[in-house]
Amino acid sequence: MSSQVHEAKPTGEPWHGAPPPVPKGPYSPSNALEDIGAVTYALHLFLGSHMVESEDFCRKYDPKM
């Protein structure tokens, strides 16, 4: 038996729809669920080999980054 390792490759599929809006105001644990859309979008970009775009979005999302 041969053991083969299969690497996951990014699909490069586009994001369906407009990017999520940047939240207003500072982070609050009580509003943490509002961040899920933005985190999902940034992760989608990053895993699709769009690291620079992902970082740009995160900097827009959190300028202190």
Structural description of this entry:
- The protein has 65 residues and is mainly α.
- Helices cover 35% and strands 0% of the residues.
- The chain contains two helices and no strands.
- The chain has helices at residues 36-47, 51-61.
- It starts with 35 loop residues before the first helix and ends with a helix.
- The relative contact order is 0.16.
How much helical structure, as a percent, in the residues? Answer: 25-40%
The helix/strand order is HH
- Give a quick account of the main beta sheet: strands, pairing sense, barrel closure: none
Helical segment tally? 2
Q: How many beta-strand elements?
A: 0
- Report the structural category: mainly alpha
What oligomeric state do the depicted chains represent?
single chain
Rounded average pLDDT:
79
Strand content: under 5%
Beginning-to-end CA distance, first to last residue:
48 Å
Please state the overall shape, judged from the principal axes of the Cα atoms.
globular
Poorly predicted ranges (pLDDT <50, ≥5 residues)? none
Keyphrases for this structure?
mainly alpha, globular, 35% helix, 2 helices, single chain, 65 residues
